[in-house]
């Protein structure tokens, strides 16, 4: 075959697409669908399916589109994610087009424009208000289960989906049992397709697949991240999904104190645990808000110290709380080497993880702790934390940092508050 013939063949998405990557024609109620949820494991081909669907909408390629859609919304967890994954990624929008039909990406305007006049605009779920005003004929929302302000962003997007005969939206996401995802799956105008990581094995490195399956197969984390299952509560966990959802708010109230807690790993390198870095604050009335999770994986002490100090500066926190059981005074020394002005409060564990976490879980049940936004990875650890002290068979580093932060705000003597906005 000639080069032109090969390019034409490779552009035929309907020839190569897996069944789960092709949108069903009708919703369960027998009517055309309005929301398509493509729920799959890591590497299952969600991004490629999303990019091909948007390409078909912009160019009016049947049977996925009857005519070109002129205004398209692209919404990701962050602006960086939209650019690096949805647009410029190896399976993103620029990659799936033939050279002669490829749209022009203007990053300064967050705008993707096709030669036929169709335009796609990039939005971050961290800024729901940016969706107030624009209007669209279709939308692609990527990794919605991880969005920090999922409900607010989704609501603003729905008000803008008002162009054309039948505005539709595609949601590609690794599953989490969030209230929004579960509600959308039950709507009569929604269709759901699912796939695990192994469904796309041909396009994945064999060593990757072998490694992750060996480590995570049959674990709760593996069922979620590899099999694409929505994992509900474990009966012996201290936190439930419903409890965490009930504690979620869009933003924190003015805080009297803020601390950044660090749970350092015992070692560094590829086999090291993550370094938990979580920030929380307390109001003058005693309400606690979790406001950041900057946990870093496989980092050297210098790297996690820089990350923790940067968060401390950004939030203008009062102290940096560091657990010193593993590294002793090494933790304080590392932080002081980066910035000697950081006030470090050392804490030492005298009880097991489960016993330390129980009083904090009680504060959640009393409604005293709120999450200012979505902290997906942290919340996964919380809802899979069992009496063994492990979460998905691993050390719950984010949860440990959370416990230290909340405990330092509530169970220790604290200095006079100074109210500040966040």
TrEMBL record:
Q: Which residues form the Terminase large subunit gp17-like C-terminal domain?
A: 261-408
Q: Which Pfam families match?
A: Terminase_6C (PF17289), Terminase_6N (PF03237)
Q: Which UniProt keywords apply?
A: Viral release from host cell
Protein name, UniProt field: Phage terminase large subunit-like protein
Task: Record the organism.
Answer: Afipia massiliensis
